[in-house]
Amino acid sequence: MSKPVPTDRPVTIEEVVNDVRTRGDAALVEWSQRFDGTTSPSPQRATAYGDLPTAAILAAARAVRTWHAAQRPQDLTMEVSPGVTLERRWSALRSVGIYVPTGLVSSLIMSAVPAQEAGVDRIVVCTPPRGAPAVAAAAALLGIEEVWAVGGAQAIAAMAYGTESIAPVDKIFGPGGGAVNAAKLLVSRDVAIDLPAGPSEVVVVADEGFDEEIIQQELAAQMEHGPDSRANVVRVGVDLEAALAEIEGYAAEHVALLGIRAESLAPRIRNAGAVFVGPYSPVPAGDYATGANHVLPTGGWAKSTGGLGLEAFMKAVTVQRVTKEGLERLAPIIEALADLEDMPAHKLTARR
To answer: Is the domain covering 201-306 a CATH 3.40.50.150 domain?
Structure first.
């Protein structure tokens, strides 16, 4: 067993992750004591406590469940050629870990409810001790029991590799600060993650002369996520194409379209995590209440990936069935390509 990482010097996220991977609960406890000021000798389940807006939480969960239930991918079976039948079958992941930043009940809803709807067997929640009672109480409302009062990079490592107390999961979800995001990227070599979650972003796209107060509301709401949040304004004048190019270049997490000309761009925007159209579609409506998922790509990732959906909690398995006659039809193709790639053992399988 490796020795504890010295505490008399700064440490890297990689050291924290590797220490928890190697020493399990002992390391998890020590890092929690150092970073979160805990005093318990073992990892602790979060205890539900505090008054919650129960009706609002359940309403938000219903909306998320309704929208994500409609996203269920369909199984597909097809005879692609005589004697060759392919099947693509979807199934839920066995276990997922959800990281919930301090007190952010909405982030719990956005990951836990789709996981439930997908049919995931085991849902594990880790959240920093300071906000754990409220998160645990909200989890109880949703029917989730395994909630740990463990935060930071050490929580990500515990969910990825397991400890004596916390069994490992198959995929990790949820936003977090810089340490959490760095830890997710590190463990992604060994366990799947949803997507990197950097500082929050909004691009407010507004027609010239649009109500400045509404524009400022959107900017202020986004900056509440932290001092590293990013908020930009694109003014739409005569040149719509220039405005569109600017929006696409940002590839932002959130894009708010305000004004007739700005709103006309909605069908053409490809690089955005979520698009909010019109003055009555504030970004916080998506954060909390519409049912759409607020776990979205940041840092330019919207150029290549979308926000969280039901399929992220599922995976597809391809089943292939070939009859004797079907294989006879495929044999010339198999043999020709095997010869091209110098794979004689592959070639031999073509005739049985």
So the answer is: no
Angle at which helices 105-118 and 132-142 cross, to 10°: 30
CA distance 75 to 316: 9
Strand partners, 205: 234, 257
Q: How many CB atoms lie within 10 A of CB 254?
A: 26
Considering the entire predicted model, what is its pTM?
0.92
pLDDT of the residue at 197: 79
Give residue for tokens 């050291």.
15
How far apart CA 56 and CA 76 sit, in angstroms, is 38
Question: In the chain, which residues fall in CATH 3.40.50.1980?
Answer: 13-194, 201-306
Q: Give the separation between CA 265 and CA 263, rounded to whole angstroms.
A: 5
User: Which residues belong to the active site?
Assistant: 253-254
* Range 329-334, long-range pairs (CB < 8 A, 24+ positions): 329/81, 329/82, 329/83, 329/84, 330/84
Q: Mean pLDDT, consecutive 10-residue segments, the chain of 352 residues?
A: 64 96 97 95 94 97 98 98 98 98 96 98 97 97 98 98 98 93 96 90 97 97 92 96 98 98 98 98 97 95 95 98 98 98 98 92
The CATH number of the domain covering residues in 13-194: 3.40.50.1980
- Using one digit for the tens of pLDDT, what is the confidence trace for 51-74? 999 999 999 999 999 999 999 999
